[in-house]
């Protein structure tokens, strides 16, 4: 059956006209089905839309009984229409009645029609409804017809979503409606309450123009963009400069497979041939593929959606010739994204950004660390939020409880305003303790240091009243750049950090790369277990030039001051000694060349690998101090990947085994006469910090925002009570001692929040 004269383009144009015509929505829908039927040379054309409870309702028909409109309804999966909605795939049958899913509806009067073609009305990965055509003659519809009907369905989806045909509220299906409030319960990853408007990070494909003016020229435009995309991806892979390996290579290789996939290309080209603009074609094909991937139920495929989204965005950028992807933010921007890297977050700057919501992020991921450093509230693991949200939607988030409310009703809004005000009061209260000493009721002084990694962290030293920087993660500076910082860059950078610190000490941790901390440049082999792989000190010892340059830069930057170096992921004493020898060689070199020297140099070891826990006396013979990296120590102690949101919170740092291990480290270090501190995330949580002080720790390093609350806790604590209590608890078998410790704190009036 050939398409009627004029082809799909004329039809799309006509549809657009109908949409803008005056009159009732129903009248417009009725007209629409008439025009589609005529154009497709079909005797029947019907539109079914989804209502609450996954019911598909006949909204308009040409050819079936008009009395069935708004009366014929199909449940999920019921009949052929239900099947199309469920599979989100076209269904092409020469005799509908022979299909096992066929469900006879006498009120429609469909008896004379044999052939059936149904396509889903898709948008943003959701099925809005089903569009069907039917003919009396028993025949298969051809590819061109299926393509044409899919294109029409896409235009329809757009119109339905925009409320262009009738009030979208009539659909009464929260998942499809853009105006209903939605609540999400994710994970609180960076504290703070934010009220603002949604900005979509790399927003979902936004297509303004659906119908192309000149399909031949449009096809050329698409082909040109596809070529650009393909050569971009090929160049990335072949580039000796980028030298992609590891995960980044895997992603790009997946892109290459997709970019060169003839099926994908042809689907895009077919959509353009049918009259769509290239952008609309990307959206349509992308929507269909995403939906199929989501429905596949295979978590690997579902994960691939993120890559696929990225690919579509890249193609759109080539189409628009627009490389910039950092939008201008409104003053009250709350960013939403599936996932984001630390560099991308930094691109936005901290001025206008009020909050961040991510679907994939664990508390120790780098984007979370940067969000905390920027003081930006962050909610992670908010599944599905980026699909449900539209740019400009109102949103409120609480980075402590992990709540996010999209399009919040007035009551929620006022609850959050009150919460925000309370928080501001608390911040003001904390400001009062800023200049007070961190001393317990029984006179024990606790050194409260802050963690940092970027220059933007340094002003917090003064604001928070921290005693110094207990952990400076130098790798962050390496991770956010496009290229490896030169020796001079590094000298400049460390000098600025030390200048910003003034008299306060700074502990520079040497590069802790590998695992989840991968440089955007350089050679990275793919590893099956990256956190157990070639990382941190292991890289430094195998590739000594990297570490020697860093040490050289630090020695130069710290002239006439005390330089404190901390070596990450020390697994073995011999390894520490080798690294120390490397540092000594650099010191010797500087001396030989008559370079300025630090006044004093101290080298410490991080205790984050359980093996080192048993070697403390030995390591402290050559190390000046040790610092417990509890984030990694807990990951290795419990065999629990800290970057995997499924297990990252499975074991609590307040587990008796963890506390016992920390106690052992503190005792062993003190017997060996070495200084010990703890710089993992647990140091910054008042309840955990209470337990740590109970275990004998006297130096804690944490996010600057946590210094105030931890100090308030310390000032209300008596170590003579807490120490015996915590040590007693270590003998228990509880999964977590949190409840017992909280009860203790409440009983003793210890300030825990
Ligand atoms: C740790 O492991 O506790 C730590 C402080 O280091 P990072 O979080 O950077 O691995
Ligand atoms: Mg670590």
Give a quick rundown of the structure.
By secondary structure, the chain is of the alpha/beta class.
Helix content bin:
40-55%
| DSSP E strands, number | 22
CATH level-4 homologous superfamily of the largest domain = Phosphoenolpyruvate-binding domains
Shape: elongated
CATH topology of the largest domain: TIM Barrel
The largest beta-sheet arranges its strands as: 7-14-13-9-10-11-12-8
Structural class: alpha/beta
Low-pLDDT ranges: 1-5, 172-176, 244-248
Domain count, please report it.
4
List the helices and strands and how they pair.
Blueprint: H1 7-20, H2 25-39, E1 44-51, E2 55-62, E3 73-74, H3 79-87, E4 91-93, E5 115-123, E6 126-135, H4 143-161, E7 182-185, E8 187-190, E9 193-200, H5 215-238, H6 246-259, H7 262-273, H8 278-295, H9 299-320, E10 333-337, H10 342-348, E11 353-358, H11 366-374, E12 378-380, H12 385-388, E13 394-398, E14 403-406, H13 410-433, E15 447-452, H14 459-464, E16 469-473, H15 475-480, H16 487-501, E17 506-509, H17 536-542, H18 544-557, E18 562-567, H19 573-592, E19 600-607, H20 610-613, H21 616-622, E20 625-628, H22 630-637, H23 656-671, E21 675-678, H24 686-694, E22 699-702, H25 707-715, H26 719-729, H27 738-748
Parallel strand pairs: 9-10, 10-11, 11-12, 15-16, 15-22, 16-17, 17-18, 18-19, 19-20, 20-21
Antiparallel strand pairs: 1-2, 1-6, 2-3, 4-5, 5-6, 7-14, 8-12, 9-13, 13-14
Helix pairs in contact: 1-2, 1-4, 5-6, 5-7, 5-9, 7-8, 8-9, 10-11, 13-25, 16-18, 17-18, 17-19, 18-19, 24-25, 24-26
Phosphoenolpyruvate binds at residues 364, 471, 473, 512, 608, 629-632, 679-680.
